[in-house]
Amino acid sequence: MQTDLTKNVSMDENRRAWVFPLVFIIVIVAAFVIFNAVAGGKFLTLLNIKNIISHAVYPIFIAWGFCFLFACGYTDMSIGGVIVLGSFAACALGNQIGVGGVVIGGMLVGFVLMFVNFLIFTYTKIPSWIAGISLALIYEAIAFALKTGKNTSSVVTSALNSDYRILGQLPWSLVILAVGLVLVYLLYNRTNIGYNIRSIGGNKKVSQAMGIDVNKTLLAVGVICGLLIGLACVMQESYAGQTSVKTGLTSINMIFQPLAIYLLAEILQKHINIIIGVPICSVILYSVFNMLTIMKVPSGTLQEAFLGAFIIIFALIGQHSVKGVVK
Q1: Residue 10: per-residue pLDDT
Q2: C-alpha pair distances (Å), 310 with each of 214, 298, 317
Q3: Cα torsion at 232, 145, 114, 133 (round to 10°)?
Q4: How far apart are CA 161 and CA 230, in angstroms?
Q5: N or C: which terminal CB in the chain sees fewer CB atoms within 10 Å?
């Protein structure tokens, strides 16, 4: 009798756990259909959908990096600068040896710089947000020096050969995204390192008392973020073909949209696992920007204002309690 009751409760909880994601998807699809009708059928065209998906892919890897970064309680504002330098390397090496060069250049620079960042975060007492801003200034200065240098200017300012941009185009970008989703989901949710990272973010002293090696775990975060940001460099350069130099901390602008994606996914994580939520929120976010562009809303300040309002609406939806839903 008790066993039957337990099974019924478990089945009821499982059914309820699917209620919010299902309703959420229905609402989003309905909103897209309505807007498509208002926009005269311009939104849900195959070409426009491909454009949205292509644009949404590379920020997903940055947002996944934020999942691990913020889970351990750290902040790194230098990621935009890392992406600029990683994209430069992907372009320069790609134009020399092809697609393999794009991968090697972007992955190597992204990985090394992020790991250096976490060496600094781990073994100094400097708050990560202060160290991150300082590193951002350093990376921007290096990028500017490369742009203005006699021997490097032409390499940095050149565009990636269109023949070597295949990884940023469909269907290859979706293949990479699908593989990344499986690996990142398992790493974050199903491994000891994922548990240790979240434990440190919850309470570092308690984690140490439980026997977790905090320094080793933080360096593991550096490795994971390095791989994700390195791959983001590859995908960004393969999609855009060229990256401009950012100075005066303007490289931080490059992480604003991935940060917004992370925040939206975090709001929804009570109902949808954050790693799965990131790609969903990325597509939704870039769909909103696409809608605003179709409506001829000026890019920049006004679109950012709409984005802020959109995040607030998401917060209201995500914080709405659903009894019985398991986080």
Answers
A1: 54
A2: 37, 16, 11
A3: -110
A4: 19
A5: N
Would residue 196 count as lying in a domain?
yes
**Do 56 and 283 meet the contact criterion of CB atoms below 8 Å apart?**
yes
What are the two backbone dihedrals, phi and then psi, of residue 21, each rounded to the nearest 5 degrees? -55, -40
Distance separating alpha carbons of residues 284 and 145, to the nearest angstrom: 37
Q: Is the Cα torsion angle 299, 300, 306, 308 positive or negative in sign?
A: positive
Instruction: Quote the distance between the C-alpha of residue 91 and its chain's center.
Output: 21
Block residue for tokens 């200034």: 137
Amino acid 324: pLDDT: 39
Q: Which amino acid is at 217?
A: T
Q: How many angstroms separate the CA atoms of 173 and 166, rounded?
A: 8
Question: What mean pLDDT comes out for the span 119-148?
Answer: 90
Is the residue at 3 inside a domain?
no
Decide: 102 and 167 in contact? Cβ < 8 Å: yes
Instruction: Give the whole-angstrom CA distance, residue 83 versus residue 94.
Output: 16
Classify residue 323 as exposed, middle or buried by CB count within 10 Å of its CB (0-12, 13-18, 19+).
exposed
> In which domain, by residue range, is 165 found?
18-318
CATH code, 118: 1.10.3470
Res. 11: pLDDT tops 80? no
- 169 pLDDT exceeds 60? yes
Q: What's the pLDDT tens digit per position in 192-245? A: 999 999 888 877 777 787 888 888 999 999 999 999 999 999 999 999 888 877
Number of folded domains in the chain?
A: 1
pTM comes to 0.87
Which helix (H) or strand (E) segment is 150 a member of? none
